[in-house]
Amino acid sequence: MNSKKLIGYILMTLAGITFILYLSFPFFNLPTENKLLIIAGTYIVNKVFFYSALYLLGKQIIVKVASYLPTWAERLVFRLLKVQKVTAN
């Protein structure tokens, strides 16, 4: 497995974990002055993990989703996003 792909999957997993934390922190019994700071910090960390993972896995995700579309739509998506379909030789 490519190291870039592995790092992308790890970042996507961390993004999922921080998203669950982001949703659950408002229900924890935290001091009021720290609650907003913790929620905002978790939100920012979640976005960093998520967009970093999309940057590393982006073309792979686009190709996988586009493969389920009709051929004309797949070509349109590839042309608009300037992505080429990878073929294994």
Reported for the largest beta sheet, the result is: none
Count of helices?
3
Order of helices and strands: HHH
Average of pLDDT: 81
Outline type? elongated
Query: Roughly what percent helix?
Result: over 70%
Low-confidence stretches: none
- What is the CA-CA span between the terminal residues? 17 Å
Number of strands: 0
What's the gyration radius in Å? 18 Å
In terms of DSSP E residues, the strand content is under 5%
Q: Structural class, please?
A: mainly alpha
Count of the domains: 1
Transmembrane segments: 7-25, 37-57
Keywords: Membrane, Transmembrane, Transmembrane helix
Salient structural properties:
89 residues, mainly alpha, elongated, transmembrane helix, membrane
What does this entry show, briefly?
This protein is an all-alpha fold.
Your description of this structure?
The structure is a single chain. The protein has 89 residues and is mainly alpha-helical. The chain has one domain. Helix content is 76%, strand content 0%. The chain has helices at residues 3-24, 32-66, 71-81. Helix 1 packs across helix 2 (32-66). The chain is elongated.
Helix and strand layout, with pairings?
Blueprint: H1 3-24, H2 32-66, H3 71-81
Helix pairs in contact: 1-2
